[in-house]
Design brief:
heterodimer, A: alpha/beta, six-stranded mixed sheet, four-stranded antiparallel sheet, elongated, disordered N terminus, B: mainly alpha, 10 helices, ABC-type transporter activity (chain B), transmembrane (chain B), ABC2_TM (chain B)
Chain lengths: 307, 246
Amino acid sequence: MTTTAAATTSVVGFESVTKVYGSVRAVDGLTLDLHPGETVALLGPNGAGKSTTLDLLLGLKHADSGAVRVFGTSPREAIVAGRVGAMLQSGGLMDEVTVGELVKLACDLHPKPFRATDVLARAGISGIADRKVDKLSGGQAQRVRFALATAGDSDLIVLDEPTTGMDVSARQAFWATMREQADQGRTVLFATHYLEEADAIADRVLVLHRGRLLADGTAAEIKAKAGARRVSFDLEGEIDQAALRRLPFLNSIDVSGQTVRIQSTDADATVHALYGLGVYPRNLEVAGLGLEQAFVAITEAEEAKQS
Amino acid sequence: MNSLIKLELARALRNRKFLFFSVIYPSALFLLIAGNADSTAKVDGTGLTIPTYMMVSMASFGALTAVLMGNSERIAKERESGWVRQLRLTTLPGRGYVLAKTAGAAVVSLPSIVIVFVVAAAVKDVRLDAWQWFALTGSIWAGSLVFAALGVAIGYLATGDAVRPITMITYFGLSMLGGLWMPETTFPRWLQDIAKWLPTHAYAALGRAIEQSQAPRAQDIAILAVFFVLFAGGAAWLYRKDTLKA
């Protein structure tokens, strides 16, 4: 496929999509495009709208306004054509059947199926094929769900928080399984609230916050943005706010009384420059921001830029 | 869809509790009720012996158990667990899930009918013409679709916690008041007046008409048809509501 074709053939297209529950705008005017072969992480804290976005993409929910297209058609048409394989976060499994039977069913239901034994092997669950589905650990169940999502030759694989319930080593082993899908040329879209997970697998990261797209870039770019830290200190006497605002790597600054609170993407450089102003900051504290706070920091920085 | 039907079936046949209640239990109940009954005594106003009368009741009861329990509880539980959502991400058409469930239950209901017949013929000397045996099997089996639809409706109405009590109340209410456990001629007059409008009553009446070599009464067929439309319509409406919400 040529680059021009890649640019024009969109795998997933959201156009000003909004989904409202009561007074909550779970997805708020979301516009995005996924391109063939990309591995994309949908990153955001809990309640950011990740699951709703994926549900809309898969046709499990319908947008209140805006349009969702998958391979240029409706989500349902894309699924019926066998172009989408998906794993839901809360995807329950049929109980009282074995893992092998369930995977066989998924293969039978797919228009372009792989052999069930291959699907089991690729998901790393050949060894538990005879086990009853209701006797699985959380991590094993996730792998079974993954097998259901990859039962056939789909062009897009959608995974909603695929490593939930896995410990660190299981998670890393699972990333390798996910990467294989991407290496075979598939477009992979997964939701996660671990920046680390997005960094390990994705070549593009979409940051979602309160149903809006906050940032869209490479994992490195997002890491730089979300790696913000908070610097706070007290100053005596007259505070030269204009000088403080010129400090490097500032996301935001808030001066209240004698206390200054700064969010910086490079706290070391900011603090260094602060001393360069010839002031004497007291009670200096530098603290990391959680992912959620980091996202808020990005939002505030974006809003500040716009105003 | 065939593969889902096959899997539903394998699962139903593996579930011992379900098999016991839908296949063994009706025959056991038949023996309990009709076991000591005189094989020549007639049930008032029917011209049928007690074992013959109870045979249809228990075969109907067994089929009802299989399709009602099989559908309602499973659907409610699988809706809650998210399996229904997962299936919507496959090529399976929306109705395929319900059809597979009903087909699975219907396959279990067939042996439950036949075993009651075999026990009645072997132990209580119930004798009918060959056409009557076939017609009975066919009508009880086909009639169970009415209750399969009811099971689907309950499955889409109830939550996972509430489904069992709701199913049980419906199931015992319909069985008892419809005269499946005891002839409704033993009911007080006012209760008989209510009972004759119940789908379970009409269901068993169809079978009895065959035993009496009579044409089924139009009223019974009409009652079953109306309930089928009601239950199936309700199930379809609840299904659509659930799909939009999920």
